[in-house]
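Page 47, continued from p. 46.
Same chain as before, 143 aa.
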Amino acid sequence: MKRFLGILTIAALSMSLASARAEDKKPDATLKLSGGSVAAGVGVSWGSGTLTYKGKSHRIDVKGLSVGDVGVSKLSASGKVYNLKSLHDFDGNYTGVGAGAAAAGGADVTTMRNQNGVTVDLVSTTQGVKVTIGASGVDMKIK
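Result:
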């Protein structure tokens, strides 16, 4: 029993250290998204977004985000982008990874990764709305 508890303690400590390292990592870019009217339970085709990478802003297209069971007239989200080695790596289909985390103020973070290993932590900045990934992922491309 003591050995089992020791293994659980070591596993919990390892997870805690990995989480702390991830929080300390500086993002390679930031992301801001905004969308128009959204009906209950319908996916969103975002009309505008901006990726800020190496001090330059790039407009992006985003398709495949969902807002669950609420209707909103305006929706916005922001995010941090990690593992972006070149602008070319940003384009792709992003799918969910791992369990959701919590951001400051209790907001939920949706974490997604594309085929190039680029990871985005996305948080809705519209009060009371949780952004989730559509069934076929989220397509993001630089215009």
